[in-house]
Amino acid sequence: MKLSPGSALLTDLYELTMLQAYFDAGVNETASFELFVRALPMQRNFLMAGGLEQVLDYLEHLRFGPDELSALAKTRRFPAPFLRSLEHLRFTGEVDAMREGTVFFPDEPVLRITAPMREAQLVESRVMNLVHFETVVASKAARCVLAAPDKLLVDFGLRRAHGAEAAVLSARASYLAGFGGTATLAAGLAFDIPVYGTMAHSYVQAYADEAVAFEDFARSQPTNATLLIDTYDTEEAARKVVALAPLLLNDGIAIRGVRIDSGDLGEHARRVRRILDEGGLSGVTIFASGNLDEHRLHQLMSEQAPIDGFGVGTRMNTSADAPYLDCAYKLVEYGGEPRRKRSEGKSTWPARKAVYRLTGPNGVMAGDLITLANERRDGEPLLEPVMRGGKRCAQPVTLHSARAHAWRQLRALPNAQRTLDVDEPYPVAVSDGLRELARRLDEGRPG
After folding, report:
1. Domains in the chain, ordered, with CATH?
2. How far is the CA of 59 from the CAs of 5, 85, 269, in angstroms?
3. Cut 0.90: pTM above it
4. Shortest CA distance to 351 belongs to which of 263, 285, 439?
5. Nicotinate/nicotinamide phosphoribosyltransferase domain spans which residues (predicted)?
6. Which positions ≥6 away from 158 have C-beta within 8 Å?
7. For the segment 310-333, what is each residue's pLDDT rounded down to a tens digit?
8. 250: CB partners within 8 A, 6+ apart
9. β-strand 181-182 against 152-155: which pairing, if any?
């Protein structure tokens, strides 16, 4: 059978084997699970939360349709009474989460799901899948934004993304983090993201004369005449653009920009800028692409390369230097009682929790505190209710609103977290009340 991205079968087998065991034993009291990251990757000073809107949409529409139940029956793993119980399974629980675009750190719950055990358990794999992927990409994209402030950054990653959903959601995550647009048309249409596009080298190669290729493209795209000039000789192509510009201008067509996709981008940009300026085209922008990431952007910015915008693809969409997070979705409370995992190297803090953020007088983040959910502390609470009774608490947050929140978050980062090098860690403390509860549980005493 063909599965949609929202299918209830998009899960790990063990979620369903546990559901059957819960069903057989009548175990279905209220459970709370929290999603968090155990440690930052070695190349990261912070992470940026993403994927919440996709999670809420998944939970709102969660159900087992006839085709899915039939497919499960054909496996002969599950008895008929259990499969009949899945017919009516819907998510009826609560979700508390950090807003998309929020900067966060290890051990801080990004999202908490509270629901009858079967519901909360079933959604584990897909919820982690959605939050993990967009968080990985948004965190990488945010570093690019910090490396090249005030520059147009465009997602160029479709062709090397790990599948269609990854391509669309990475475009969304990068826009959330501050990119200016995407080349992926489907993502632009789905999420109202500005879409950018120029031409490929094959277009220029299809012509015997490079200048004719430029002219035909400009006449075909009179409001979007950005020309790719590095197919043969980058500087010679820039001179052809200068010669072509007056002819096009006579017909009301202004060349918008040129793109460089290979070689020493900084040096080519300096030479091309000089050629364009001397030819009276100071208003024509230079756009660069080709294996870019935050480190290469930082280098080009440090060199003061005259580049107005960048296309960033593979290394950002796959988060090449840190492609995964050590994230977990763990039970912290069941039937009103706190639960704590004590596995070696993978212990968890018990009970439902809150995260408070302190900010200095200059608006810069000063430290976070992880507490029990019923503790009240100074600072901004980062977790907020987003779903109750299986329904959203408010209208969906627009991507543009989440993007503005992410921009404010990046502005509030301390200098140590803004750098590309791993510097001093951001201070995250755990409250005495939470530590005491963990100690009591470890000693076998009631929470």
Report:
1. 13-138+325-442 (3.20.140.10), 147-317 (3.20.20.70)
2. 12, 18, 48
3. yes
4. 439
5. 153-331
6. 167, 171, 183, 184, 313, 317
7. 999 999 999 999 999 999 999 999
8. none
9. parallel
